[in-house]
């Protein structure tokens, strides 16, 4: 692996074998994904940090750009209000608005073993619950901001981190990064935005709690039956015993699918003929599973207690799927991961490098964008108080802010996953009652909505 | 308590006379011995001074509030050009004297905001440590920072009305003759310049929390670091500064949460406090 990658770089312009020279930056971001690139843009846009030199290391080649007239892409994110505010603050939002995105007015969540159902929306649909945006469009928008601040942010493509050394271990003043092609860099602060297998995190030596869910997520872009779709502004999620199935609106007649299921089932779905796949999908949304009678009875009692007769109960059904776009199906593994601390002397973690959650509540990338906001705020306040960028004395503030915000959400999402991956009757009963109570009691519902939607 | 207050009264009266500080020093041998003991006590810690998790941990944490206090104090006085506000050059061009700089924890941080900082301390080991840290870990600041092993009394002689700000942070509670020290500090200040003081109040909660609990139970600071006799209330500091034509413009109370190593501002000066006073500009200068 190592030899092949370094061989591939030999025709690049900067591969003079002078590994002794070390280039210095104030901040190096390892990983140019959604969160890493957004962080680079946010650092460049902060007035206090504007004089800092930032290097963004990205393993892949140059970003191809985004074509807003092309077909919809299969990797999309449900972006909440806080994240949109972040995009607005770094001037990336107009770029997204000018291209394409779909506001979600309502979210309906229901399950397979009882009638329990919950709907999230703002009063009178006054504002959006979330926006569904293609990941590449977000990347395109933040890259535009990064390019506009090219004087202090440098992007280095095809640069994979070989090894990292941090001041806490070496006793040196700076953090050091060596790339696989032998180039060396040093910095005041190294930020690990390098995903769930973060090299930076491993070197930081923080405790990591991780779980493999033995599930895979399958994504695809779908065409809906036009007569059933309406304005297609509802996000649908049904919990099946194998995992949740979600339909996120893209346009009036297209939606994006996120289907979490067992590994063999995911592989089977991936290799099916399109027509077969569409049938399997439509069935999954409508199929009747073995009911837990007691749970249904309890729900009826609960609903009558709140004065809702079952006929008033506004159960909606998602539009049926007509077709799947060819080549849009892809699978990815699902897991849970959390680092006990996001900082150490000379380094910090953001996004999936620090935490990874199940996609069922659409929280993953929003937590990452939350990290970006808190980290930039903390670094700016620290720099304005004369702290070195990598000083743990001040970085700890970022750690505290993020942990208090992220841990409850992560536990909540993990709890939901666990709660809904069983057909055990007492659990079905309790979760159904819990969901219905939440649906019927606005204060509780608003509490969860605030948590999930920022 | 009574004893120390009467001591202060006597001092503030004598200090009204010119050069009172140098003339009226009583039992100067005793005082020199006491100063030497204090310097020695702090010098013994020189090796651990920069260790954030060491005995000076609380002092590192104090930077979170004292740097912004000094920074915003200078900005509010209108001494900072607006283009530098909100940038890391906010203290550009400011000449700051730090009295009792120790190993330079605060000194470096003020210099990182582009101020020219002179740090003086009586401890030879401390000044050595401060210089070594500057060259080894913060070389980029070496043109901004100067360390000198000398007393404020000596320093003022060659630097009268020289500084935009004088900082006396966590020092007053180690000094016997506070009036003389403050007198010399004020002399080195330009008219219109600010003196910033942070110290601990002479109250029972402070003594119980800071000395009994902090030094003897929790080891937050080495035993024998602080003494009741030398603590001083903000009102007394204010009165002393008044006699030197320095008007107190800001007084903030602060406290230390040892369980999370964090300082925060509070609505009471019962524990610790930070004070800013401004030296009067003589009328004929206007």
Share of helix of chain A, binned: 25-40%
Largest sheet of chain B: 8 strands, mixed
| Class by alpha and beta content of chain A | alpha+beta
Q: Give the name of the CATH superfamily of chain A.
A: FAD/NAD(P)-binding domain
The fold-level CATH name of chain A is FAD/NAD(P)-binding domain
Radius of gyration of chain A: 23 Å
Mean pLDDT of chain B: 88
Percent strand of chain B equals 15-25%
What do we call the CATH topology of chain B? Rossmann fold
CATH top level class name of chain B = Alpha Beta
Please state the second-level CATH architecture of chain B: 3-Layer(aba) Sandwich
CATH superfamily heading of chain B = Vaccinia Virus protein VP39
Secondary structure: number of strands of chain B: 8
How many helices of chain B? The count is 10
Globular, elongated, flat, extended or rod-shaped: what is the shape of chain B?
A: globular
Q: Describe the biggest sheet of chain A?
A: 9 strands, mixed
Largest interface: A-B, 14 and 22 residues
């Amino acid at each position: 692996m190592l030899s092949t990658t370094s061989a591939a770089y030999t025709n690049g312009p900067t591969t003079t074998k002078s590994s002794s020279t070390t280039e210095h930056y104030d901040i190096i971001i390892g990983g140019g994904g959604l969160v890493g690139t957004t962080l680079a843009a946010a650092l460049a846009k902060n007035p206090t940090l504007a004089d800092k030199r930032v290097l963004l290391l990205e393993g892949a080649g140059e970003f191809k750009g985004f074509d807003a007239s092309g077909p919809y892409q299969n990797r999309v994110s449900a972006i909440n209000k806080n994240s949109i505010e972040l995009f607005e603050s770094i001037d990336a939002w107009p770029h997204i608005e000018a291209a394409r995105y779909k506001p979600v007015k309502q979210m309906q969540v229901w399950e397979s073993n009882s009638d329990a159902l919950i709907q999230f929306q703002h009063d009178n649909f006054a504002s959006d619950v979330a926006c569904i945006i293609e990941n590449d469009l977000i990347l395109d928008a933040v890259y535009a901001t990064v390019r506009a601040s090219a004087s202090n942010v440098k992007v280095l493509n095809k640069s994979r981190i070989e090894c990292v050394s941090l001041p806490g271990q070496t006793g040196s003043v700076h953090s050091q990064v060596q790339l696989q092609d032998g180039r060396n860099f040093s910095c005041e602060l190294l930020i690990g935005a390098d995903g769930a297998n973060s090299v930076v995190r491993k070197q930081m030596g923080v405790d990591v709690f991780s779980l493999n869910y033995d599930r895979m997520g399958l994504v695809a872009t779908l065409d809906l039956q036009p007569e059933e779709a309406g304005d297609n502004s509802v996000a649908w999620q049904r919990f099946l015993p194998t995992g949740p199935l979600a339909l996120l609106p893209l346009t009036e007649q297209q939606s994006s699918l996120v289907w979490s299921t067992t590994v063999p089932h995911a592989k089977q779905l991936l290799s099916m003929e399109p027509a077969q796949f569409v049938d399997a999908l439509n069935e999954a949304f409508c199929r009747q599973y073995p009911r837990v009678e007691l749970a249904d009875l309890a729900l009826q009692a609960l609903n009558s207690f709140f004065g809702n007769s079952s006929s008033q109960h506004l159960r909606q059904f998602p539009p049926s799927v007509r077709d799947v776009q060819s080549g849009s199906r892809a699978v990815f593994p699902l897991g849970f991961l959390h680092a006990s601390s996001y900082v150490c002397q000379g380094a910090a973690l953001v996004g999936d490098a620090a935490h990874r959650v199940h996609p069922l509540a659409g929280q993953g990338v929003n937590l990452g964008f939350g990290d970006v906001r808190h980290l930039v705020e903390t670094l700016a306040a620290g720099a304005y108080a004369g702290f070195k960028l990598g000083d743990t004395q001040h970085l700890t503030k970022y750690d505290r802010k993020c942990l208090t915000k992220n841990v409850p959400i992560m536990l909540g999402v993990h709890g939901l996953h666990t709660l809904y991956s069983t057909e055990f009757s007492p659990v079905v009963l309790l979760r159904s009652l819990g969901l219905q109570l939440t649906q019927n009691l606005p204060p509780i519902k608003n509490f969860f909505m605030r948590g999930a939607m920022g | 308590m009574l004893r120390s207050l009467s001591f202060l009264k006597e001092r503030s009266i004598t200090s009204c006379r010119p050069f009172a500080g140098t003339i009226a020093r009583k039992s100067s041998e005793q005082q020199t011995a006491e100063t030497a003991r204090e310097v020695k006590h702090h010098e013994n810690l020189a090796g651990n001074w920069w260790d954030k998790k060491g005995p000076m941990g609380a002092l590192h944490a104090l930077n979170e509030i004292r740097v912004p206090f000094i920074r915003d104090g200078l900005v509010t006085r209108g001494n900072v050009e607006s283009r530098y506000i909100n940038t890391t050059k906010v203290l550009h061009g400011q000449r700051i004297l730090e009295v009792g700089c120790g190993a330079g924890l605060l000194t470096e941080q003020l210099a990182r905001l582009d101020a020219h900082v002179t740090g003086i301390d009586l401890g030879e080991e401390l000044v050595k440590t401060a210089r070594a840290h500057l060259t080894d870990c913060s070389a980029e600041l070496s043109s901004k920072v100067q360390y000198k092993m000398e007393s404020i009394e000596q320093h003022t002689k060659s630097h009268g009305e020289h500084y935009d700000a004088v900082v006396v942070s966590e020092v007053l509670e180690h000094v016997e003759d506070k009036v003389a020290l403050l007198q010399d500090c004020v002399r080195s200040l330009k008219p219109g310049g600010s003196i910033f003081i942070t110290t601990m109040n002479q109250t029972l909660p402070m003594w119980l929390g800071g000395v009994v609990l902090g030094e003897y139970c929790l080891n937050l600071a080495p035993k024998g670091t602080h003494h009741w006799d030398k603590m001083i209330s903000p009102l007394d500091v204010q009165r002393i500064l008044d006699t030197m034509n320095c008007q107190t413009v800001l007084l903030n109370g602060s406290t230390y949460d040892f369980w999370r190593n964090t300082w925060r501002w509070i609505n009471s000066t019962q524990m610790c406090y930070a004070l800013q006073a401004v030296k009067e500009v003589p009328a004929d200068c206007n």
